[in-house]
Structure formats: structure tokens, C-alpha cells
Design brief:
The structure holds two protein chains of two kinds. Chain A is 57% helix and 21% strand. Chain A is built from 14 helices and 15 strands. Chain A has a six-stranded mixed beta barrel. Chain A has a three-stranded mixed beta sheet with strand order 2-13-12, with no helix packed on it. A two-stranded antiparallel ribbon of chain A has the order 9-10. In chain A, helix 2 runs antiparallel to helix 10, helix 2 crosses helix 12 and helix 10 packs parallel to helix 13. The model of chain A has no long low-confidence stretch (mean pLDDT 84). Chain B is of the alpha/beta class. Chain B has one domain: 3-Layer(aba) Sandwich (Rossmann fold). Helices cover 33% and strands 29% of the residues of chain B. Chain B contains seven helices and ten strands. In chain B, strands 6-7-8-3-9-10 form a six-stranded mixed beta sheet, with helices on both faces. A four-stranded antiparallel beta sheet of chain B has the order 2-1-4-5, with helices on one face. In chain B, strand 1 and strand 2 form a beta hairpin. The N terminus of chain B is likely disordered. The chains are: A alpha+beta, B alpha/beta.
């Protein structure tokens, strides 16, 4: 009974608004654009943060990544010719790490170099990743064909390589894949598997894998390619000795990640004279990114909120005009026996209907904008249930907030005066 | 003066006891009602007359529960309504009273049916019952075929009939008519008047405010107001 009464009131409100279609529509526009911009901004914000979070997740939230980095002092002196800079992580660091922390589950050493690879007349520069079989646990990717590196490959120091999908396609083309022998640098490698890759940037760290990777056992990489790398720079050649470019550590419990990272950092400090490494913790980045996302959403939300506010004021303005225009109607209703709160309710319902309709249309507009953004700029946008419900509830709240004053104003009309009102 | 107890006479519908209504106009006090004592019998037909400023409009507003006395008492259907708050007065209007105005006062955006249903809406009737009642009333005032029309599509006489149907919707004890024929030509006015007389014959108490002696003559009794007091009573108050 009560429900049908409310439904009837809402219907009466809609009927009244339909009497002035253009006016109602124009009044609604403020809320339409307000809600539209809130929805759009939230979905852009959600999309951006989701993308960042997704990439950080791909780094592995239980992982710690230690990368070699030329120290600041080294950077300053390395301009001289024939100077060889020696820096970065060492095989010794790798051994020590694996032994000294009980919370470390697995560690993968990473040695990186770029080499031309060829099969027949097809040539492509690959990023050769010398690593251990643990890599494939720490950076889990779908195996498309064959298998990944095994302990036995390492023991036998077998010249085998696992390629990533993109590189494999370029090099192998239509040839049969597994078992094919390709040349990397000047050495022969047998292709034993192909894995998918995910490339991209997550915050300030590069995702461990790239789509032109060739994974080879680290011992093989060391024996074939050595530890000394020559880089061509504008001032000539620059030689560097780096044993390991990266180490990826997996901690058994996400709660311990940050403590282990601090421990690792302390240990490295003892053995390295210069700070020629950088420890990054995806989990810490994840937390940072989440905090950033919250701030981002608040900022975007408040900017969009201003347009909602403007929409609300527009509604209030029109409702006040409408109350004046309908003074006589209010007087008639009051004379017949309508109580003040019934008048308040009548006008409030009209405003809420108006703002909620605006909210629903705004939702449509707001859904279209992120779609267009994604379509034209390729930026990731994401509409969440929260991103839909919050603006909708806000639009209803706007109706109540900005409708209350005109409605109370309407109820204050003196029926005697109102009935004489022309 | 001691407050008089309400009459136990069940035939009485309206009683004013020493009713005063004083307006503050700037520094001046205007006594719109200066101590009125009167009682109307159930089923009577009264015309309230008087020159402008005599207090007849104030009288109407007070009797119609649209305004409150400054002092004195007003008994409506045996209940003292002079101390009631706004909500309770609304409730009294809703349950006991019906209004007819000179300018019809229909709500323009509502159909005839919706206008007639208005009191029923506030009484909480459901849609189906209200529609049936509205149809019945429209037929009673000879507008059974106009239910879906808007007031602007009707003539003055028809609009006033709709207003009468609306005033009857809540089956009121008293119907107030404020210059009900003032905006109508004499022939149409006559029809409206006959309708009111018919309702009176059916037992409704009718109180009309008018300055036209011809109209007033048709009422059972006439109350002449002057300077906020009853000047004289004519006709047959019994």
C-alpha cells in the first residue's frame, strides 16, 4: 500500500515534469553533464590505476627485483676513453642471497645482452637473457610450445634457448619451431620452447620480460658471451664489466616482502663499496599506486563534483521559479487539506525525479565518454559498479539537497494568500 | 467573558464564541472580527454578506479552518478547533470541509478527473476507488463525459461544476462557497446556485459569501457583517 503510494507520487511527479518538457530537460542537463563527468572521470581514473596495478601485479607481488645500476660516481668518471667500469651485482651476491635468507623461496639471476640472431637470411636483434630455470616460476608466462629451461640444461650447460612469441615469429617464421637451430651472436642454439611475453612499464620498473627475449641457461650465457660488454656512445666506445644485471627474488609470504627487501639492501651495502644496484619492491609500488589511485580519484571526483554542484543549483533555481509559478496550485492543495509535509514531499519528489533522471542519462553520457577515449586514444578506462552507483546516488542526493529549500519554501505558502494569487 | 461550553445540540455544525481576529497592519490594529457569536445548524444554507472590509472574508477563512482566531473559540462539528496546529487544521479541512471559489481554482495541468480526485488523494484512497468516485461525482454535476478534459477546455460554468464535484469528493459536512457565481453570467450562475440548493436539500450545510442580494436571497438565512461584527440576521436560522 505504502509502496504503491510512493510509486503514485513519483508518477505524479513525472507527469508534472512532462508538462514542461523543454524546461525539465534543460534543468536536467546540468545534472546530466555533472554525473556524466563524474562517471567519465572515475572510469578514466579507475582505468589508469587498474593498468598500473595490473603491471605491478605482473612484476609479481611476492617478488623483489634487484637491478645493477651504474653508481653516480662511476657515471661521472666514465667519460674517459679506454676506461672500463666495473659495477653491478655479482655471482657472489647471488650465492650469498640464496643462502642467507630463510624467507627467500627462489632466486633467479639475470644476465642481459643484445645480440643479433639469425636463421637463414632472417636477422633480428634479440635480448638474450641468461638465467636459471627459476625465472619461469618468478615470471610465470604461458608456454606456447615445447618446454622451458630445466635444471638439466643448466647442469649440462646445453646451448638451448626459449624464445618469446614475438621474437619466435620473426625469426622462425614458417619454419618448424621446436628443435630448430638458430644462431645467436656467433653461437648455435637449439630452440626448445616458446613462451608468451608481457611487456611494458610498471611505475618506474621495467617488467622483467620483453617480447624479443631469448632465455638461455646462465652458465651458457656466461661462457659464450662473457661479462664484459662494449657499448657504443657518442664519445667512442665504453666498456663495462657486469656479472649480473638483475636478480629476482621470491619471498614466501607477501607480509615479509618489505622486511626481506630491507635485509637484502643491508647485506648488499656491506659488500658493495658504491651503490651500484637498486632494490625495487613491486608490492611497495603496489601500495603506493593504490594510495595514488585514491588521491587521483578524489581530485578527479571533486572537479567533476563542481559541475554536479552547478547542476544542483540549476535545479534549485528552476524549482524556486516553479514554486512561485504554482503558488495558486499549492494554495488549492492546502485548502483541500494537504499538510505542509505533503507539499514538501510533492516538490521534493519532483526534484529527485528530475535529478535522478538526469543522473541516469548522465550515466549514459558518462559511459560513452570513456568508450570514446579508449577508442581514440587507446587509454584504458574502466567502469566499476561503484563508479556507476556513486554518481547515481549523488544525483539523488543532489535532488534532495537542492530540492529541499524550494519544497519547504512551497509549503510555507499561506493558502489564503495563495488562493488570491494570480 | 466566560468561555461558553459547546452546545450538546447535535444539530449544530458551526459555533463561534466571542471570536476575535486582529491583524497588525504596521502600527495599527485592524479588528477583522471583533467578538462574533453565532451558531449554524447542520443542513442550513447561509449567505454571509457585507461591504468590503466588513470582515466577511475573514469570517470565511476562520470558518473554513484556513486561519486561526486571535481569541475566542470555534467549534466545528462539536470539536474546538481554535487551538489546533496547522496539520490538524489541514486534517479538518480534508475530512469535514469543501471549498468552492469565485475563480474556480482548478489545477490547470490536471484533468477533470484528477481535479475531482484531489481530496481523495490526500485521504489516501487508492487509484481505482478514486476514479469510480470521481466519475460518480462528475455525473452528479452533469460532466460525466468530460473526465479527461483539462480545465482550460471547459466553460466557466463547467469549471465551477468540476469545483463543486471536487468539493463533494470527501463527503464534507460543510461546503464553503466564496462568490461562486461571481465569474459567471447570470444564467450559468443560476444553474450553479440550483446545484448548491440541491446539495443543501440532500443535507449538506452550505455557507456562501456574496455581495449580490439576488444570490443571497436564495439562501435560507443571511448574515450581514459590518465592521467585524454581526450587523443583522435575516431569514430563517431555524
Amino acid at each position: 500500500m505504502r509502496q504503491t503510494r510512493i510509486a503514485r507520487n513519483i508518477w505524479l511527479g513525472i507527469e508534472n515534469l512532462l508538462l514542461h518538457k523543454l524546461r525539465s530537460f534543460l534543468t536536467m542537463l546540468g545534472v546530466v553533464f555533472g554525473v556524466g563527468s563524474v562517471v567519465a572521470m572515475l572510469s578514466v581514473g579507475e582505468g589508469a590505476s587498474k593498468e598500473a596495478l595490473e603491471q605491478i601485479r605482473r612484476l609479481g607481488s611476492n617478488n623483489i627485483i634487484i637491478s645493477s645500476m651504474k653508481s653516480a660516481e662511476e657515471e661521472a668518471t666514465s667519460t674517459t676513453h679506454s676506461h672500463m667500469s666495473i659495477y653491478g651485482l655479482t655471482y657472489e651476491d647471488y650465492r650469498r642471497l640464496a643462502q642467507s635468507f630463510k624467507d627467500i623461496q627462489q632466486t633467479a639471476p639475470v644476465k642481459l645482452m643484445r645480440r643479433d640472431s639469425r636463421l637463414g637470411d632472417r636477422v633480428m636483434e634479440l635480448r638474450v637473457v641468461g638465467t636459471s630455470p627459476e625465472w619461469f616460476d618468478l615470471v610465470p608466462r604461458q608456454v606456447l610450445a615445447g618446454r622451458v629451461l630445466l635444471k638439466s640444461d643448466q647442469d649440462k650447460q646445453a646451448p638451448v634457448a626459449v624464445l618469446t612469441e614475438f621474437g619466435a615469429r620473426k625469426i622462425l617464421a614458417t619454419e618448424s619451431t621446436i628443435g630448430q637451430t638458430i644462431r645467436i651472436g656467433s653461437d648455435q642454439f637449439e630452440v626448445i620452447g616458446i613462451v608468451k611475453s608481457e611487456s611494458g612499464q610498471a611505475g618506474s620498473i621495467q617488467i622483467p620480460d620483453q617480447d624479443v627475449d631469448a632465455y638461455v641457461p646462465i652458465e651458457v650465457a656466461r661462457r659464450y658471451f662473457g661479462d664484459i660488454f662494449t657499448k657504443r656512445t657518442s664519445s667512442g666506445e665504453e666498456r663495462e664489466k657486469i656479472e649480473l644485471h638483475q636478480m629476482i627474488i621470491q619471498v614466501d609470504d607477501p607480509k615479509k616482502v618489505e622486511a626481506v627487501a630491507a635485509g637484502v639492501e643491508r647485506m648488499l651495502e656491506q659488500y658493495h663499496k658504491k651503490k651500484d644496484y637498486v632494490v625495487s619492491v613491486p608490492l611497495a609500488l603496489l601500495k603506493q599506486a593504490e594510495a595514488m589511485k585514491r588521491r587521483f580519484n578524489i581530485v578527479l571526483g571533486s572537479i567533476a563534483g563542481i559541475s554536479l554542484l552547478v547542476g544542483g543549483i540549476g535545479i534549485m533555481n528552476i524549482m524556486l521559479a516553479s514554486v512561485t509559478e504554482r503558488t495558486r496550485e499549492i494554495g488549492i492543495r492546502r485548502a483541500i487539506g494537504a499538510k505542509r509535509r505533503q507539499i514538501v514531499f510533492q516538490f521534493l519528489i519532483e526534484t529527485v525525479v528530475l535529478s535522478t533522471m538526469g543522473g541516469i542519462i548522465g550515466l549514459g553520457v558518462g559511459a560513452l565518454i570513456p568508450f570514446l577515449i579508449t577508442y581514440f586514444s587507446g587509454m584504458v578506462t574502466l567502469m566499476t559498479l561503484r563508479g556507476i552507483l556513486v554518481p547515481l546516488l549523488i544525483s539523488m542526493a543532489i535532488g534532495i539537497l537542492f530540492g529541499l529549500y524550494p519544497a519547504v519554501h512551497a509549503a510555507q505558502v499561506d493558502p489564503i494568500v495563495a488562493l488570491r494569487h494570480e | 467573558m466566560a468561555k461558553q461550553a459547546p452546545s450538546n445540540d447535535h444539530q449544530e455544525i458551526v459555533r463561534l464564541v466571542n471570536a476575535r481576529k486582529i491583524y497588525q497592519m504596521g502600527t495599527e490594529q485592524v479588528k477583522a472580527l471583533a467578538g462574533v457569536n453565532i451558531s449554524f445548524k447542520k443542513g442550513s444554507f447561509w449567505a454571509i454578506m457585507g461591504p468590503s472590509g466588513s470582515g466577511k472574508s475573514t469570517m470565511m477563512n476562520i470558518l473554513g479552518c484556513l486561519d486561526r482566531l486571535t481569541s475566542g473559540s470555534y467549534y466545528l462539528a462539536g470539536q474546538d478547533v481554535s487551538q489546533l496546529d496547522d496539520d490538524s487544521l489541514s486534517e479538518f479541512r480534508l475530512r469535514y470541509l469543501g471549498f468552492i471559489f469565485q475563480s474556480f481554482n482548478l489545477i490547470p495541468q490536471l484533468t477533470v478527473q484528477r481535479n475531482i480526485e484531489l481530496p481523495l488523494y490526500y485521504l489516501g484512497w487508492d487509484a481505482k476507488q478514486s476514479a469510480e468516485r470521481a466519475k460518480e461525482l462528475a455525473e452528479q454535476v452533469g460532466l460525466g463525459d468530460r473526465l479527461e478534459h483539462r480545465p482550460t477546455e471547459l466553460s466557466g460554468g463547467q469549471m465551477q461544476r468540476v469545483a463543486i464535484a471536487r468539493a463533494l469528493a470527501n463527503d464534507p459536512q460543510v461546503i464553503f462557497a466564496d462568490e461562486p457565481t461571481g465569474n459567471l453570467d447570470s444564467a450559468t450562475g443560476e444553474q450553479i446556485l440550483e446545484l448548491l440548493i440541491k446539495l443543501n436539500n440532500l443535507g449538506k450545510t452550505i455557507i456562501i459569501v456574496t455581495h449580490e442580494p439576488d444570490i443571497a436571497k436564495r439562501a435560507q438565512s443571511r448574515l450581514h457583517m459590518l465592521d467585524g461584527l454581526i450587523d443583522r440576521i435575516e431569514g430563517n436560522p431555524e
